[in-house]
Amino acid sequence: MAAERLAAVPALYEAFGYRCRIYPGCSQRDGYLAGPDTQRLADLHAALADPEVAALHAIRGGYGCMRILDGIDTALLRARPKLLIGYSDLTALQARWAHEGLPTLHAPMAASDMLLPGRPPSNDSDRDALFTLLQGGLRAGEVLAPELAPSPLHVGGRAAGRLVGGNLSLVAALLGTPWAWDARGALLFLEDVSEDLYRVDRLLTQLRLAGVLDAAAGIVLGSFTEAESPAALLQSLLQPLCEGQGKPLLAGWPAGHGTPNRPLPLGLHAVLDADAGTLTLTQTLLHGPALSAALPVQAAK
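User: That's the sequence. What structure does it adopt?
Assistant: Structure tokens below.
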């Protein structure tokens, strides 16, 4: 991470009334990683143990979260649950949180989104939406209803379940590990970036063969930002499956590596209405100390 952009992060939070702590691994580099695994894991544990830290917000994505999954102190995570915020590579950590019954936010990251030089105005709208959510929380009955552009990739209907998923590549990579997302009866959210069509095909086929797509009660697709649009591929792979099983499919949800990238709660239960283009929360997410009271820690099945 560029030192000048990292140095600008505290002012970003202060503008919204928050203080932040930047941990040592954020300014380190170990090959293609932001510091060695031991440092990044130590940072994570330090943030969890700190009573003044209410949420963990990723600076940027990349790769490396999977490498520390088996080193996370489960007792500490359960005893000191903190809201985890980010997307992309954070999908791995978000799955780990979900395994313990804890919610997370698929949402823009501090430096790579909110402080990106030359960022479009929509990035500022995404930033404002995130901090509005953090300041006010989400409550059962709240309807998430973004303005969706009409899409041929659509199967109508309603389904209820826990919101799970994130970056398609990481969702697939977690299969076969103890922390794979549990898609049984869930609303599966997927997005990705910079993947060739054959790779998107391979990843979705892997999910199908592993039973993930069959297990989900409904599917929500965020942005798939590739050089060549995968819309026709997604339609050919997902629409027949959803039509044959009578499960709703909604595309174009404004979350992912593109813009807009609105915050989406993962790990909360919701109702998907594909015809109305909405997600209605059936659980409450309160920020800060109230988080553990709103969603008691419980191991996922």
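The chain is about 35% helix and 20% strand.
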